[in-house]
Amino acid sequence: MYMSRMYLNPQRRQTRELLANPQKLHAAVLSSFPPSSSETTDEGRVLWRIDQTRESVALYVVSPAIPSFEHLQEQAGWSQEQSWQSSDYTAMLNRIVKGQKYAFRLTANPVHTVTEDGVRRRKAHLTPAHQLGWLTDREEQLGASFTGEAGEITAITTKSERRVFKREKRTVTIQQVTFDGSLEVTDADKLREVLCNGIGKARGYGCGLLTLAPME
What we know:
Layout: E1 2-8, H1 13-20, H2 22-30, E2 47-52, E3 57-63, H3 70-76, E4 84-88, H4 90-94, E5 101-108, E6 111-116, E7 119-124, H5 128-136, H6 139-142, E8 144-145, E9 155-167, E10 170-185, H7 188-197, E11 209-214
Antiparallel strand pairs: 1-3, 1-4, 2-3, 5-10, 5-11, 6-7, 8-10, 9-10
Pfam family, one: CRISPR_assoc
Organism: Corynebacterium deserti GIMN1.010
Protein name: CRISPR-associated Cse3 family protein
């Protein structure tokens, strides 16, 4: 598996168009791999996420193969300087052991299923409390705990945005929520599985990618 980061130029028109439509950005990410490359393998799948601040726009990609971002560089980067780098993710994954603590970020699509008039429908969690509940309910699946020594929740929602965009002739609506905080590893194998395959719905639309960083 590989982890890549590419900085996009927020002043470029193409960058703004890609950011406005996760379907277009998903297609651009997949076009970074040759036709023979599979989006999903036994090792993991292609996942991506946008981290945006006032100063920068960063595209993160986890993938089974090394991407080639020349086309994105031409359309949405800087013409004079390569703005991406890729590294082998394996060493980081192998260092994960039970009991370690990490800072984390996850952009996800927290949803739940309700029954209305006998029909099951998927609905987004809209409040921070319900969104955090969605995350903590998945501690076992994630192989991680978001509960501190004093019983406090060590995660917060830092962004929640309703995204509406077109996929061919269909309108797609998702609730994109970013969680930040710290976690403790409870099952290293399960956590590695999520890091390589993502979690939740809308993984093709910039959701599901969990990243870790050393605790400061």
